[in-house]
Amino acid sequence: MWDRRDPERLEQRIRVERDGSVTALSGKVEFGQGIRTAFAQIVADELDVPIERVNVVLGDTDQVPFDFGTFGSQSVAQETPLLRKAAAFARQQLIGRASVKLGLPAERLDTDAGAVVAIDGGERVPYADLLDSEPLAGVIADRVSVMPETRRKYSGRPMSHVEARDIVTGRATFVADVRLEGMARGAMVRPPARGAKLRSLDDSAAKAMPGVIAVVREGDVVGVVAERDEEARAAAAAVEAEWHAMPVEGQTAEVTMRSDAGVDAKLRGASVRLAQTYVLPPISTAPIGPSAAVADVRGYGATMYVGTHRPFGVREQIAKTLDLPEKTVRVLPQITSGTYGRNSSADAAIEAAILSKGSGRPVLLQWTREEEFAWSPSRPEAVLEISAGLDGEGRIVAWRYDEHTNVHTAAGLDPQVLGVTSGRNAIPPYAEFPARVTLHIEPTRLRTANFRSLAAAENVFAIESFMDELAVLAAEDPVQFRLRHITDSRFRRVVERVAERSGWRERADGRRGRGIACTVYHGTYVAQVAEVEVSLAGAVRLVKVWCVVDPGQTLNPEGVRNQIEGGIQQSASWTLKEELLHRDGRVMNTGWDTYPIATFRDAPEAIEVFVEGDETAPPTGVGEPGAVPTAAAIANAVYAASGARLRSVPLTRERVRKAMAG
Amino acid sequence: MKLALSVNGARHDVDVPPNTTLLAVLRDDLGLTGTRYGCGGGQCGACYVIADSRAVASCLITADQAARMEITTIEGLGQDARLHPVQQAFIDEDAMQCGYCTSGMVISAAALLGRDPNPDETSIRDALAGNLCRCGIYGRAIRAVLRAASPS
Asked: How close does chain B come to A453, measured CA to CA in Å?
């Protein structure tokens, strides 16, 4: 299913339009990571057209080729070669047509700014004039020659988002900004806790309220449709529903991710051993814009305006919900508030579809802030236990790792899936010592699902904190200690470079200290140094972060910088501030006052990102890796500044003060 | 209830239920969807508009209250050929990712520059502290406001 792909056809990838513009089609979806810009750059370069003439259509299930979803920072990596090839093939076909039209051999033709031109000069045929017989189509040839790098005008150049103008003027249409003829508004009636079953329903008062069109019930899903948003919400509050609480059964499983011979014997024989446990609390994806969807369900099909990473997956779910054939459902992904994985679950879309079907009206449903915190999937608690032994020269001789979490309660128990979800980055990137790595899937009362980097951020917090503790035990500088255990040259380079760029030293002035952490995430190499200031009371201020990233060949360095900076800032917020509290399956903190995130006042003085990609390596993702090492870099910096070793986050003042005293 | 609002320099007559928020009127009655819903409690800044030269949360004031004020939304701040310097600076510094918080942030920054054309970094952080961003573009937004304050 991951590679369900038919042969690539040109008409599903590139359309040269009669007005001379070019439409590029991809099943990937934009959510702030800048792929629309990156794809436009590639197509503009390969087809030799000005970038302003390239329109990128993302995720419209009636137009684009099937795509499994936009996950794991892989969009650019997967799509780049496909779009490049499609655009190059289109250019080749256009040159072929011009050759017939002009009676000139293709070798004597070239392209320039949206036209085929004769190399000797004179003839110039705009692409639009080459479409009279039929549109460009056909299976894309296996071998297509692409533009030499010297002729690329856009790829690799810093560019701001192509939709930046729409965003700063407010014109950008997010999901909740879609307005359809006859559109009504929805509001859901929520149970007290997850998994509750509806026992009885009295909607007589609600139905009599102003503006109410329908009270819709389907199974345990209950909602109100009204003319106005505030009317729908008032009526939803007036619905009398009795719920039967149901305990949510947690899953358990054990997956051996790596098991080398001799781990226990080597641990026993080590000259020193260390065992520690690290704990991360549940956190919320906490998008600024709550979930929203617009559903227009008719007898013959449905049109869905949604925020999603996987339009074809939503099409399947909506077709199933409404009992319609898949081909009658059209999913139109809209730009959406960044959701960092949360949108993988199509809750609002399914609810909006039910409300639209039940009311006979197109319905916009936007969750409230409280609903978003309480009902969206979260990142669960993680407990990470590590033991390792060092030999007389301070080298790691064995490693034992037990990870306890379940980052995706709906993903099932297939060990292969668990290994890449909950087990992500559990295997240390350091080479040449025997290791046993075991993933324990723990029951959780929280609903959990995709959140930026899945479990990598948790695992790397533990591994990189522990590497620092081992360095102390080996009486060695943390950078040198890591370098001694790295064999991969690209990994080594980012660690060396971040040390150089930051002028590495552990102690900084006054009450400041610096910490390092590094990882390899889906082929992207990233190393960070954080500087913090720790007050006598234990308050941690993040002063500055340096980051060196190697995402292979880099199309848009400015876009990479923006993504990495954002990952660091978000991860700093998780690390210093965030903890989702829950009891009996019910989330307790459902507002920004009780779930504070970093604000402008908390932002560090600078986040310096150095994009130093290996241009000979294929491009890899940057949406997630920036967030992965930050927690450990900060915790290691707190240790350098204050001597307090924090093995639990968030690094609240109370917790740090206690660790300083102990 | 029938109300006359002054939004982006034009008069708009609306007929809305009592206690309807300014945010709902802007988005649902006037079609000005650039002002975003984020929390409904004045805690995130996504719905900020300029009301009589101050940045305020449009989810916290009623349309009735707003009828006594001069309201400017993100759409009225500047469009295409005539962008507000803050809007241009946000583009130039690529100070956005998903863009959901951008409207409110630009409004806060524009209101700040209206009362202090040359703010220092601390004043910018203070003035924008009510605008939450989850994508993590705070550093870029600070640079954008500094740039807008002193055009080169």
From this structure: 14
Number of residue pairs across A and B with CB atoms under 8 Å? 183
CATH superfamily, domain B85-149, is: [2Fe-2S]-binding domain (1.10.150.120)
Domain B2-77: what homologous superfamily?
Answer: Beta-grasp domain (3.10.20.30)
A contacts of B36 (beta carbons < 8 Å): 174, 176, 288-289
Q: How far is B52 from chain A (nearest CA, A)?
A: 20
Identify which of A65, A56, A54 has the alpha carbon closest to the alpha carbon of residue A36. A56
**Alpha-carbon torsion A623, A626, A628, A631, what sign?**
negative
Contact B135 A600 (CB under 8 A): no
- Reading chain B (152 residues) residue by residue, the pLDDT tens digits are 999 999 999 999 999 999 999 999 999 999 999 999 999 999 999 999 999 999 999 999 999 999 999 999 999 999 888 999 999 999 999 999 999 999 999 999 999 999 999 999 999 999 999 999 999 999 999 999 999 997 55
Set of chain B residues whose Cβ sits within 8 Å of the Cβ of A337: 98, 100, 134
pLDDT at A1: 35
Instruction: Give me the residue from B27, B94, B103 closest to A160, CB to CB.
Output: B94
Collect all residues with Cβ–Cβ distance below 8 Å to B81 and sequence separation of at least 6.
Answer: none
Fold entry, domain A10-164? Aldehyde Oxidoreductase; domain 4 (3.30.365)
CB-CB under 8 Å, A179 with B33: yes
Q: Is B1 on the interface with A (CB under 8 A)?
A: no
* pLDDT tens string B28-50: 999 999 999 999 999 999 999 99
Phi, psi torsion values for A283, nearest 5 degrees: -135, 165
Alpha-carbon distance A179 to nearest alpha carbon in chain B (angstroms): 9
Say yes or no for a CB contact (<8 Å) between B131 and A33. Answer: no
Above 0.90 for ipTM, yes or no?
Answer: yes
3-state secondary structure A497-546: HHHHHHCCCCECCCCEEEEEEEEEECCEEEEEEEEEEECCCCCEEEEEEE
pTM of the model as a whole: 0.93
May I ask the CATH architecture of the domain A453-661?
2-Layer Sandwich (3.30)
